[in-house]
Amino acid sequence: MTSSYRPRTTIEQWRILQAVVDFGGYAQAAQALNKSQSSMNHAVAKLQDTLGVKLLQVQGRKAELTDIGEVMLRRSRQLTVLVTELEQLAENLKQGWEPEIKLAIEMVFDRNLLLPVLKEFQLHSRGSRLIMEDTVLTGSLETIIHKRADIVITHQVPKGYVGEPIANFQLHLVVSNNHPLAQRNQPLSPDELSQHLQIVIRDTAQKPLEQQGWLRAEQRWTVNNFNEALQLVEAGIGFCWLPPFTIQQSTQLTELQLAGGSHRSGATYLVLPKDEKTGPCARLLYDMLVSELTNSGPFR
């Protein structure tokens, strides 16, 4: 339902009021806006008459805000910023700039590495919304193949796509300090490990490959993310493969030694699923990620 209220003031009147204050007077504002001083006086006078309040008072040769004017000016700045952003958004959309982009991130990737880029990207995003979502195992592949995201950070690149290597990842085998396996002083065999409950992360694919990665565990509880897994591991319920950025949050873990290797590791890649159809905003973020992560990461 739309409101029946009709504004009695205009955006231009508020902009003129702001200019008179910012430039220190009617004459200076008129020169800055390339308008006549009389038109500036008329606009502010009409604004005050319409509202029925005094916004400005002239002290000598300078126009100063009244107490009411201070409040109204502050709120008017919010209004004009919103209008400017709305007009800029329309221009961006006309030029093909996306109103929304999606970045899918394989859960083994440390999001802390993204923060400097995202902080800089926000300054150049022109109001586009950024959606970030976690993907796991074959869910990452599906996101690329079905083009469900504009940019994907993945640990595996499907055939027919190109990935830009950006960082390595590791997973460490851990249990609670109170778990029976924590008392072992020698490497475990895979068969011994399989006799205990494993905490695994849910594959985000619509059609997961049940025999891939950690999903091969017969005794397993499934959770949505590493933080949920960490809680169960700390409670002594099972073991899990966790990344360093999750493990460092806890002092209650013991890293297990597994015959044949206690770490799982690999590389992560940046992929543009839509290739040449990628929009300019997504392309900007992709270029910023490549520049930052390939220059500061292990592949520099």
UniProtKB/TrEMBL annotation:
Stretches of the chain forming a coiled coil according to its record: none
Keywords attached to this entry: DNA-binding, Transcription, Transcription regulation
Top-rank lineage group of the source organism: Bacteria
Gene Ontology terms, MF aspect: DNA-binding transcription factor activity; transcription cis-regulatory region binding
Residue ranges of every copy of the HTH lysR-type domain listed in the record: 9-66
Transmembrane segments: none
SUPFAM superfamilies assigned to the protein according to its UniProt record, in alphabetical order: Periplasmic binding protein-like II, Winged helix' DNA-binding domain
InterPro entries reported for this sequence: LysR_HTH_N, LysR_subst-bd, WH-like_DNA-bd_sf, WH_DNA-bd_sf
Family as reported in the entry's similarity comment: Belongs to the LysR transcriptional regulatory family.
Record's protein name: LysR family transcriptional regulator
Phylogenetic lineage: Bacteria, Pseudomonadati, Pseudomonadota, Gammaproteobacteria, Alteromonadales
